[in-house]
Amino acid sequence: xxxxxxxGGLEAGPVDTDAHPMTFWEKQIDALNQLMAxxxxxxxxxxxxxxxxxxxxxYNTLSYYERWAASLSRVLIDxxxxxxxxxxxxxxxVRARLGQDAG
Amino acid sequence: MQExxxxxxxxxxxxxxxxxxxxxxxxxxxxxSYYQVLGLALKELLIDKGIITADEVxxxxxxxxxxxxxxxxxxxxRAWTDPVYKARLLADGSEAIHDFGLDMGGTxxxxxxxxxxxxxxxVCTLCSCYPRNVLGLPPSWYKQREYRxxxxxxxxxxxxxxxxxxxxxxxxxxxxxxxDMRYLVLPMRPKGTEKMSAEQLEALIxxxxxxxxxxxxxx
Amino acid sequence: MPxxxxxxxxxxxxxxxxxxxxxxxxxxxxxxxxxRKFGTFPNPETLAIGRDGLPAKALYEVRFRQADxxxxxxGGAEDTLDMxxxxxxxxxx
Lengths: 103, 219, 93
Fold this sequence. Notes:
- The complex is a heterotrimer of chains A (103), B (219) and C (93).
- Chain A is an all-alpha fold.
- Chain A contains 5 helices and no strands.
- Chain A has helices spanning 24-38, 44-52, 56-61, 64-78, 84-98.
- The longest helix of chain A has 15 residues, at 24-38.
- With 219 residues, chain B is α/β, with parallel strands linked by helices.
- A two-stranded parallel ribbon of chain B has the order 1-4.
- Chain C is mainly β and 93 residues long.
- In chain C, strands 4-3-2-1-5 form a 5-stranded antiparallel beta sheet.
- Chain C starts with 8 loop residues before the first strand and ends with a strand.
- Classes of the chains: A mainly alpha (103), B alpha/beta (219), C mainly beta (93).
- Chains in contact: A-B, A-C, B-C.
- Chains B and C meet through helix 9 and strand 3 of B and strand 3 and strand 4 of C.
């Protein structure tokens, strides 16, 4: 009866104490998140709720900042700031620029 | 701003997967690749719409990068050398850090003191609440499942993984940051440091000692 | 709701609503002692659904003995866990 985030007390493996410095991509997502909060687009607890409601499979597949990107996209769509169509179109553009396959 | 061509240096919870250059991408890779692109797409759309500017993103990153564990170390070193400041810090951390030009924004700083009787350890089991405005961004392990799940249940075993052992008669006190309070551990000042300058003291105070998984350096 | 003064023994409500809850499942039904009150804050459960979080809720630091939380706890006998819990999750024992 737990959300995927409510993991206190569960069994888990050893802690990976390596540094894993933040990538530039992660810093951008962190900054986006902070700016959207500062500008009043969503509250911290709304962001958390969206992450919690990703479900166990998605929560545990995505990395920490990928979850933030997922949550941010959903909250912005739900609030009418962006549409899925706009996001899909921009994703295609960014992929093309990065030289990735569409699939 | 142009991103470098497709990179793989993104963080995974579940350990790295191998790549061979000519094999088709596995489903997980496609998902991570999509989310990498989605993050960039969201940034660009928000800039396109004038909701944020590229300059704001840059300044936000710079501000975040400007706060590091050295920031917290300055606060701790002052508390070690100035009993009046230490009392202020323990009574109202949010107010006391104004002396350093720091502010907690919408959260509140609670400083918990290690003593010979009590050793404090901080976690946020539900997400990753962390005193970012005094320590900077949290380390990777603090946000991951293994730490969040286990430190509340077997703190001494987790501390041992960081090389930290505490006597059985010391009370290990874990703080699960579930609300708006952000916790900073005030480590005990190591013996033999009485003649050290502020800079020398600051060098002893590690990020991990202010989270509580380690003790400060003693030299 | 009346105040829980420091030293009051409390139990965490053993309810399991769905939604954004900042009281972890591992602490539900457990007994501890109030150590301090942090003040009143907007309720995160309703902030999470776009409301203003009012009326604000009192927030308490509650201390639990680890031996009371985990039947197999192998650490020190005096080890504790502190958690910040909103008033509406606490029942006076």
